[in-house]
TrEMBL record:
An annotated Gene Ontology molecular function: RNA binding
PORR domain: residues covered: 4-334
Organism name: Jatropha curcas
Domain of life, source organism: Eukaryota
Record-given protein name: PORR domain-containing protein
InterPro entries on file: PORR_domain (IPR021099), PORR_fam (IPR045040)
Transmembrane segments: none
């Protein structure tokens, strides 16, 4: 199906600054966790790969003067960095939100694991999804503090560790919950649920595709928490199950979006077909693919629409407000750097004979 650009989804700030923000938060955590609240640049200068920083770390930190404050350290005149007062306040708020909503965040992790084939996932897979789920990057390092009795650590092949969930109460997906609220779903297995559709302006489906979509919506809905091994992998019902999985997965995430390449890594553990990426292209009324920042980001449209009553059908993630505050500081940093650049140009201009009325020729 032909892709069509949608400026609305391409302009959602917290989605398209998420990759950049992840590196900032990782470096912020290193500084905040230091007993002195500051670090010399030598502590992080050779760890750019770890923080997914593609330029020199010092240069990266200097791009955000509203978050990182630079000063000369006590030894060897090395640059040191600490958090600005504003960033330190947001860091405190972030810790408060993590504590206040720890049950909500654990529940999201449980759901993520319970959608997997074996109800167990390797630590490395979970580690790669912590940012999306809104959990701190050191979450798995402190299992006694962060995990409750529903989780179990298991030994996997090749000496790897995994995290499992004791399958207790029946989980229902956000689609099932919303359908129950509307009175169009009773909770029976193999019952149909229609996916909410959010057509982009100017995106029209051919008649043949419209007819197919109407019939597709009438197919039974297989919850991502239910057994699916009995399904014919080449059937439309199996396709609808994959669609339901992607919808539920993105509904758990902070920005209700993720880099498509990161999602492709989940195929083995969640019983997804080799060409699962086709689901995003095949259903442009449910997902939007953004190509900003030289990457492909899959966005769940329903999270940014309303249910017809002016209400959001997918709850806002508790960490989103905190991330938006960090993004506000990122934007403030751009203003500071721009002012500084203009000031430097003005100073150069005043001392340059090639200036006319205070402006460089």
């Amino acid at each position: 199906m032909k892709w069509k650009k949608d400026p609305f989804y391409d302009s959602i700030e917290h989605i398209h600054k998420s990759i950049e923000l992840k590196s900032i938060v990782s470096l912020k955590n290193i500084i905040a966790q230091n007993p002195h609240g500051c670090i010399p640049i030598s502590d992080v200068s050779k760890k750019g790969l770890q923080f997914d920083v593609k330029i020199k770390v010092a240069r990266f930190l200097r791009q955000y003067p509203s978050i990182f404050e630079e000063f000369t350290g006590p030894k060897y005149n090395l640059p040191w960095f600490r958090l600005t007062e504003e960033a330190a306040l947001i860091d405190k708020e972030e810790k408060r939100v993590l504590e206040e909503y720890k049950e909500d965040l654990r529940e999201r992790l449980k759901k993520f694991i319970l959608m997997s084939k074996e109800k167990v996932l390797p630590f490395r897979i979970i580690q790669g999804m912590l940012w999306y789920l809104g959990l701190p990057e050191d979450f798995l390092l402190f299992p006694d503090k962060n995990l409750d009795g529903y989780f179990r650590i298991v030994e996997l092949e090749d000496g790897l560790k995994g995290l499992g969930v004791i399958d207790g109460k029946r989980m229902i997906s956000v689609l099932q919950r919303n359908a129950m609220r509307k009175g169009v779903y009773s909770g029976e297995q193999m019952e149909a649920i229609e996916f909410p559709l959010f057509p982009s302006k100017g995106l029209r489906l051919r008649r043949k595709i419209k007819d197919w979509l109407i019939e597709f919506q009438k197919l039974p809905y297989i919850s991502p928490y239910e057994d699916y091994l009995h399904l014919d992998p080449n059937s439309d019902i199996a396709d609808k199950r994959v669609l339901g999985f992607l919808h539920e997965l993105l509904s758990l995430f902070v920005e209700h979006s993720a880099e498509r390449k990161k999602l492709l890594c989940l195929k083995k553990y969640f019983g997804l077909p080799q060409k699962m990426h086709k689901a995003f292209e095949k259903h442009p009324h449910i997902f939007y693919l953004s190509f900003r920042n030289k990457t492909c980001t899959a966005i769940l449209k329903e999270a940014y629409g309303d249910n017809g009553n002016g209400e959001m059908s997918i709850e806002t993630h508790p960490m989103l407000v905190v991330r938006q505050k960090y993004i506000d500081l990122m934007k403030e940093s751009q203003v500071i750097l721009k002012r500084k650049k203009l000031k430097n140009q003005f100073v150069e201009c005043k001392s340059d004979s090639d200036c006319v009325d205070g402006v460089l020729k």
